[in-house]
Amino acid sequence: MQDLKVLSPEEVKGLDEPRISPSQNQSEYSKKIYLESYGCQMNFADSEVVTSILMEQGYATTSNIHEADTILLNTCAIRENAEQKIRHRLQSFKPIKAKNPHITIGILGCMAERLKTQLLEEEKIVDLVAGPDAYRDLPRLLEEVEDGNKAVNVFLSREETYGNIEPVRMHTNGVTALVSIMRGCNNMCSFCVVPYTRGRERSRDLDSILKECTQLFESGYREVTLLGQNVDSYHWQNPETKQSINFAQLLEKVAQLTPELRVRFSTSHPKDITNEVLHTMAKYENICKNIHLPAQSGNNRILDLMNRTYTREWYLERIQSIRNILGESCGISHDLIAGFCSETEEEHQDSLSLLEEVKYDFGYMFSYSERPGTPAEKKLSDDIREDVKKRRLQEIIDLQRIHSSYRNQLMIGSVQRVLVEGDSKKSSAHHFGRTDNNKVVVFPKKEEMKGEFVDVIITHCTSGTLLGELIN
Ligand code: SAM
Ligand code: SF4
């Protein structure tokens, strides 16, 4: 079943379609890599690390698959349809491989980690399989394939953070960038494959994060998004001073680099987000007032089965603290799963009533997809019929759309500070940017303002986009 989300037009493209790395470092003699990336922001950030590692070894990237020596797919395994998409894509490479038998085809990321050598057995076209912690080994793996072998590295590390690798920015507008601050996840949400595909949680060292953010600012970037599966459990200890840094402290240090660099982060976990983080957000104008706080369900029995380790009441208390400390205008978004194992109609109604109670700005909504090897697959039954899942998901989406419109309408008449990210996808006569609370704003362009902060009065909206006029 297709997962559906309420997205602005600007966002739809970024999330639903793979990203193809642009051509870089082209020279007559270098071998060319074609890299397509699927899934979450972590994967897109990882592809920038992969490119950096390969370019360091003299490879070039190309956006033209027909001139590639190697095709790499950086994959997602979070839901079954994400993997199906990759399998279909592999089918489409068959004519290319038939024409050029020497081309190398490699699978990277979460699907590689989940299926390991099984992938080589099932998909004969694949030559190379590398998990998310094996990217430093890619040059060697590629050589192994050149020597006529199949190559696999799915070793999961307890230390690897790629902290010292300077990512090559590829899908960049030159204004906003992703900065990975940690990898893996120690939570065991029963539906989720991430702990098995990305391994144990580890935090990247503070100095390398600050260095990367400083370099980004110096090269013209004006916004960074600090990324992790559960950023609130960021924890790093200086090996010399033994001083420990938590997420609130990291956030403060990044915010203090310069007031002209906006800071965002994702994802927060309801059990871990602290008032210290919320107060740090309130203290610095350049920390964007927007929190992505996945709920997954509004019902306590289901939350317990999901092993989310919080209750609906706890979750709502966290929402109240966000509103109290950061104000009503703080953007709040969620993830919600429809049709988890044994979910009754009443329990589904609890998810809808959670939406009513919070009135989120935005949501990512999914129907439950059983993943092999997860606790839910082992202990629970995926017993909700597909048509029921689909109907419940649609009800959730319809309600979220109403709330997204409602929250956008509240902003009409207000003046918003917008960081201009570029031209609107629909018209080069319009700019597009984002507000502090992460709403897409489209407004008529007067002059080239990419990368600038401008004030825009909001005049109209849809459920996904604010429309406005430049002031001053
Ligand atoms: N770490 C984040 C968190 O704790 O919420 C999110 C990680 S996951 C990459 C993104 C979202 O995918 C989850 O929040 C969940 O809603 C959804 N998801 C994960 N596993 C799923 C599954 N088996 N079926 C449907 N949706 C799933
Ligand atoms: Fe998956 Fe839960 Fe970890 Fe998020 S917190 S990545 S949903 S196990």
SS elements, strand count: 23
DSSP summary: helix tally: 16
Query: What average pLDDT do the residues reach?
Result: 93
Structural class: alpha/beta
Could you name the ranges where pLDDT drops below 50 across 5 or more consecutive residues? 1-15
Distance between the termini: 48 Å
Give helix % range: 25-40%
Shape: globular
- Work out the oligomeric state of the chains in this entry: single chain
The value of Rg in angstroms is 22 Å
What characterizes the major β-sheet?
7 strands, mixed
Ligand identities: S-adenosylmethionine, iron/sulfur cluster
Estimate the strand proportion.
15-25%
What can you see in these coordinates?
With 472 residues, this protein is an alpha/beta fold. The protein is built from 16 helices and 23 strands. The protein has helices spanning 9-16, 41-56, 80-92, 94-99, 110-115, 117-122, 138-146, 194-198, 206-218, 247-255, 275-283, 300-305, 312-326, 345-358, 375-379, 386-409, and strands spanning 4-6, 19-20, 32-37, 60-61, 70-75, 104-109, 128-130, 151-153, 176-180, 182-183, 202-203, 223-227, 235-237, 244-246, 262-266, 290-292, 331-338, 362-367, 415-423, 430-435, 440-444, 453-461, 465-470. Strands 2, 3, 4, 5, 6, 7 and 8 form a 7-stranded mixed sheet that branches. The chain has a 5-stranded mixed beta barrel with strand order 19-20-21-23-22. A hairpin with a 3-residue loop joins strand 22 (453-461) and strand 23. The model is unreliable at 1-15 (pLDDT under 50). The site of iron/sulfur cluster has 9 residues, from helix 8. S-adenosylmethionine binds at residues 40, 78-79, 191-192, 194, 229-230, 267, 269, 294, 296, 335, 337, 366, 368-369, 371.
